[in-house]
Amino acid sequence: MANKVLDLEINSLTFRSGLEIAIEEGVTVIVGPNNSGKSTLLRDMVNLLSADPNQPPIPGVVVERVNLTWSGDVQDQLEKLKESLRYYPAGTSEALSGYYESVFKFPNDNVIHESVVNSILKSSTTLGQLAEVYLLHFAAESRTGMVGPDASFDAINGMPSTPLQTMWVNRELEIELSRAVEESFGQGITVNRYAGMNIPLHYGKTSARETAPPLGEEYKEELRGLPLVNEQGDGLRSFIGLVLNILAGSHRLVLLDEPEAFLHPPQARNLGRLLVRLCQTGSRIIVATHSDDIVQGIASSAHESAPVAIHRITRSSSQNHVSSIPTDAVRDLYADPFMRYSSVLDGLFYHGVAVCESFGDCTYYRAVLDSLARTSPHVDIHFTQTGGKQRIASAVRSLRSAAVPVASVVDIDMLSNRTELKQLIDAHGGDIAGFDSRLRSVQAAVVSKGETVPRERLRSRVGPLLELAPKDLSPEEIANVRQVLQARSGWKQMKISGVALLNGDARAAIESIIDDLGALGIFIVPLGELESFHPAIGSRDKMAWLKQVMDERLHENEGVHSSFVEQIREYIAAKQLTPPSSPIP
Hints:
Blueprint: E1 8-15, E2 20-22, E3 26-31, H1 38-49, E4 63-70, H2 74-84, E5 86-88, E6 103-105, E7 111-113, H3 114-121, H4 131-134, E8 135-138, E9 150-151, H5 163-169, H6 171-185, E10 189-191, E11 198-199, E12 201-203, H7 217-225, H8 234-248, E13 253-257, H9 265-278, E14 284-288, H10 292-301, E15 308-316, E16 319-325, H11 327-335, H12 337-341, E17 352-356, H13 359-371, E18 381-385, H14 392-401, E19 406-410, H15 418-427, H16 436-448, H17 455-466, H18 475-485, H19 490-497, H20 504-520, E20 522-524, H21 542-551, H22 560-577
Helix pairs in contact: 5-6, 5-8, 6-8, 6-9, 9-10, 13-21, 14-15, 16-20, 17-18
């Protein structure tokens, strides 16, 4: 890897809203919903850091100012720049024709006067022309064209001007890039150093050993047979272009916009892990991403080599808000196998999340939401499930630690289990003590609604079976006996009838409980359970019920179900538009 020798510290970003976030060494990840300002943030940084240091800075759309410092004095920095750029002192035979003071020459032949460099090195907000030395910015569409072939160059009198030329000189760099490509795509890469005027990059390795010239015929034949990287798919070219430019450069700051572009999830996760490794030498990498896989790869490697910070950016009206997510909290999220392999953490990239009990619940509520009139501003809600009530509280805690607005959507029997209800209320930041007296009143009323099994009914239904000749009961007879013995508990009846089962003080108590839980973000199905929204469909199988609802488009009708989902949307919209303060512990 190229040595990062330039002592620049990007300390923090100041937003137009006045908020300031620190930019630490390592990887900084920017996540959030679409159109929240992630890509704009990176473009603002490029514009601000490239601005003329002698002119008043023009604030960006999202970022007001980039705050930076230099390590050491100006002379130290000048000496370090001489190690990275060609230096032509004034009044010497090395001085460039037409220049009357000392200048630095960039690999692309651009020239900057030493006096300008001195001015930049005294700035605390901009890099000016030196941005191309210290700063590397990758937009998604720019990476696929950075894999050659590049022109050859004078390796004795000249200096590499492209990353591929740098790798032509540096075989260790080729080995490192080849290892990274092989980890993600199954094969490495080979630099063709013998193609005359061009430097092609090939996908794959030769089995024959490269020897000192003249090359062996077997090696030349295999090299000619390797496909060119520039003729491969966008995913491979994007990955190689990105990693090659980071490895070959000495940039102190790397800005990556949507590095997951063109990559499948496994490659995106590998790239996330690789980015953490690539910044071990003190550079800072800032990633704006829509990909849970990129975040997962970065978070899973955070403890191994370099610090990781994650910031979730949102927008209300024209103002941006940022929540800083503790690295340990994110790593813990991805360490939980259920969280890692479910879609819960996709909520980082939505306006908010609704956590349901099952896949069928998610499908139904998402369909109802899609049928509602769109709001302005639009609110994107991610519906996810935890396979039952038991893990909902854990999912809520995880999402709230990431400052994601979250609602829980549960059947009415959640009120029957105080332990699980307490965990959920705690996860939403509430206190069950404010509900206990009402819960006891409701519990007593519901239990009193439970059915019993009268002995006479049992005798009339089971007695005749005992008089029959066969010694053993048939499967059908066993099923009949079970049905007779089966008495509906009060809570079973609540799931069928909902709050309508109760009356008087108990009815008032449960309605107030549902209202107060809704204010916390816990939404109890008032009719009992999902299937009660469309009771005319009698299927006992939820997926069969769901299919019929969808086929008949019943979810598109107005009713209690649409009002219920509207409440969820309004809650998340309100939380989304409230500027987050700090992550939830």
